[in-house]
């Protein structure tokens, strides 16, 4: 298993970045993930396959999540302070009783989620989200106290 075997060359890399990936090879399903980035104040944990991109600007934070095979009505987004929770429920693969899966790269998790501790507090009521072609884009404006402002020197 990648990241768990002391002889695995990736073990040291995962330790160095504080990552723990209990996976069954690169193509296997991720069961739980935890990632911490101390300098940006970012922590991510969750279950299932949901790749993320997080972009921080001076006034907002943008989250882009890939959630293929999910309906918009099956996605739940909650934001409180500096924490964002994403949940999605997928329908199980539709196979007939006379069929069996002999190979699949599709994650079998029916519910996937991510909890993200953001690098700043956000205005929950002013946030927006868009879901199109399996791509969820969330815009989170930062609160006034989180905005980067210059300080004049007297």
From TrEMBL:
Q: Which domain of life is it from?
A: Archaea
Classification via Pfam families: HSP20
Q: What keywords tag this UniProt record?
A: Stress response
Q: Which residues form a coiled coil?
A: none
Q: Does the keyword NADP apply?
A: no
Q: Which residues form the SHSP domain?
A: 43-154
State the family it belongs to: Belongs to the small heat shock protein (HSP20) family.
Q: Please report the name of this protein according to its UniProt entry.
A: Heat shock protein Hsp20
